């Protein structure tokens, strides 16, 4: 495989680390800035909202320059945002830094996937894309727990300084290893947006927002939940996040394996199981062993929803695969922002640190209901039109789905 994939994977590793590591150091950040934990949760919501805005906007603007230059620009934004967070004199400045870093997130994965696929022979495109996204997966097994440990020992500012340094390494790798591929051909923007007239596209986005949002309702406040409810010492949060990352890794693999075989049944199973496990977490969070097991299951079930949700979106928006890919990353992060805000709201209302789990179960359960509706509309459309739904069979002209790690 080309060394350029390593540069892309390093960028993905840094982005994955900065997105999730904030959850491990949230109490320290809150204490340093003198704000409540729910208020500090805006650092999660702000990042997620930045992805929602930046993913489609920067992806479309990226058609004006070469993909390599755009990737380097995005990594520069990432470095600037994390450096600003690391040296922020106040909470507001850190929030701005988080938003700046987040603007690069969606477009990097969208454009990076295209670059990765173009680096190899046609029969190896999926493997190349998977290698880039491996950086995101590894971030949740190594980068996030490691960053949490460093933050607890040396301070959270050191964590964000190291993440910015990772960005510099990624930028240098992109400059040195990624070949110039020329400016991509401009697509028909009107055609891209016309695909969103399909109600199924909006249902798919809603399933993504609510389904993955269920995970973030619990995970955003996992540190206080594990330390103040389950009774773990603060240092244990590091290996607990490792368990969550391992769950993510295997869940993503299983979700991808079964999504092509039976997409909607896989989606029904994962969303239903996720809602049930989140509901169960309100009870198991009071026991150390059960809390650790449940946390691993949440990671597995949460990321098992990613491949079927992503594939369903691309199937329903087959006329606009580029914009759909970026918009779906935005949808995942819109769910993150919504869930983090709702989780903070129920904690602020005095319902306790396990109350975000109820929110998560409600969000995932609602996504399950929407998946039933989407399947019903899909079957009715096939009966009435007598046509094959886009994505149920594939032709050479159709784009290869881009796997999304988060």
UniProtKB/TrEMBL annotation:
Annotated stretches, region: Disordered: 387-406
TM spans (from-to): 42-61, 73-96, 102-121, 128-150, 156-178, 199-224, 236-255, 262-283, 289-309, 330-352, 358-377
Transmembrane recorded as keyword: yes
Annotated Major facilitator superfamily (MFS) profile domain residues: 4-382
Stored Pfam families: MFS_1
Keywords annotated in UniProt: Cell membrane, Membrane, Transmembrane, Transmembrane helix
Matches recorded under PROSITE patterns: MFS
Membrane topology (UniProt): Multi-pass membrane protein
Intracellular or extracellular location(s): Cell membrane
Domain of life: Bacteria
CDD domains assigned: MFS_NepI_like (cd17324)
Keyword Transport: no
One term under GO cellular component: plasma membrane
Main location: membrane
Coiled coil: none
Protein name: Transmembrane efflux protein
């Amino acid at each position: 495989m080309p060394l350029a994939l390593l540069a892309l994977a390093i960028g993905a590793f840094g982005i994955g680390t900065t997105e999730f590591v904030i959850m491990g150091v949230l109490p320290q950040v809150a204490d340093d800035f003198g704000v409540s934990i729910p208020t500090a949760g805006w650092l999660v919501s702000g990042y997620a909202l930045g992805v929602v805005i930046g993913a489609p906007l920067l992806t479309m603007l990226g058609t004006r320059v070469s993909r390599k230059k755009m990737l380097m620009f995005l990594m520069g934004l990432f470095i600037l945002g994390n450096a600003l967070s690391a040296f922020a004199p106040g909470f507001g400045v850190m929030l701005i830094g988080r938003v700046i870093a987040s603007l690069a997130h969606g477009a990097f994965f969208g454009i990076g996937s295209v670059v990765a696929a173009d680096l190899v022979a046609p029969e190896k495109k999926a493997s190349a894309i998977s290698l880039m996204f491996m950086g995101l997966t590894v971030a949740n097994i190594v980068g996030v727990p490691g960053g949490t440990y460093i933050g607890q020992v040396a301070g959270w500012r050191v964590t964000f300084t190291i993440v910015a340094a990772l960005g510099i390494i990624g930028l240098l790798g992109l400059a040195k290893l990624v070949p110039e591929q020329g400016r991509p051909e401009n697509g028909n923007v009107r055609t891209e947006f016309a695909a969103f007239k399909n109600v199924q596209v909006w249902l798919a986005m809603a399933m993504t927002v609510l389904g993955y949002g269920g995970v973030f309702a619990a995970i955003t406040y996992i540190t206080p939940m594990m330390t103040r409810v389950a009774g773990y010492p603060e240092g244990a949060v590091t290996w607990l996040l490792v368990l969550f990352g391992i769950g993510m890794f295997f869940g993503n693999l299983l979700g991808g394996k079964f999504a092509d075989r039976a997409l909607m049944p896989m989606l029904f199973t994962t969303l239903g199981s996720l809602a049930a496990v989140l509901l169960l977490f309100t009870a198991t969070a009071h026991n150390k062993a059960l809390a650790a097991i449940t946390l691993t299951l949440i990671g597995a079930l949460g990321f098992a929803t990613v491949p079927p949700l992503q594939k369903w979106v691309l199937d329903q928006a087959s006329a606009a695969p580029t914009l759909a890919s970026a918009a779906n990353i935005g949808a995942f992060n819109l769910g993150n922002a919504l869930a983090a805000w709702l989780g903070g709201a129920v904690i602020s209302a005095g319902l306790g640190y396990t109350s975000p789990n109820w929110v998560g179960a409600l969000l995932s359960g609602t996504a399950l209901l929407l998946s039933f509706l989407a399947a019903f509309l899909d079957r009715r459309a096939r009966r009435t039109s007598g046509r094959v739904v886009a994505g149920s069979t594939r032709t050479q002209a159709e784009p290869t789905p881009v796997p999304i790690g988060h």
